Amino acid sequence: MRAWAALAVVLTTSLLLLAQEPAVTVRNATEQTAPAAASKSSKLLPGKRVIPAGTRIPMQLKNAVSTKSARVGDRVYAETTFPVALDNRILIPVGTYVQGRISSLQRAGRVKGRAEVLFHFTMMVFPSGYTVSLPGSVERADSEKSQVSDPEGTIRHEGEKGKDAAEVGKSAAQGAAIGAIATRGARGAGIGGGIGAATGLAIGLLSRGGDVTLESGTSMEMVLQRDVLVDESRIR
Question: Global pTM?
């Protein structure tokens, strides 16, 4: 009986030890993971700031861009005109250079199709010389005859509807005058006006539409397409 009792004590003790081992393992793993995570965070956070996606940055174009002469891949240069601040700290000072490239370009067609250009900004160079990569697109461009037409930042010519209508009207008036003189009557004026209108319409269709032209000094806004991480100590 004593032997069986001793064996039972040994088995019970072993089972208790096995049951306790997983708890010890989990506790040790937790104790090792927490300092590692804290250490990683401490390396990333000090001096780092995030400029959030959607931030709008006022700029001024430094080189002219025209669909008449530009090509895909050409560089685009701009300069910030107003500081961008976050939590009372200036993260993008005035005079920061912005560089981009033309992504796509289309010249206006003779019958249909408007001129348009799309370019994306890829880099900022701070006055201190600090350089940061970014994805930015055009949010707004101050141009009398062109406007941003989609969320990607495509700048499209507004069209020549007013110009075409004026051309048709001018040709119709000239045709009516010539017809009236030739036949000395209202009927001749009507025929001449119709011919003149047709001529004006033909001229409008055969003429190529206007180009997108952004002069140097054009004001625009860039919008960040994702968060941009900057080192605050290198901005100034």
Answer: 0.61
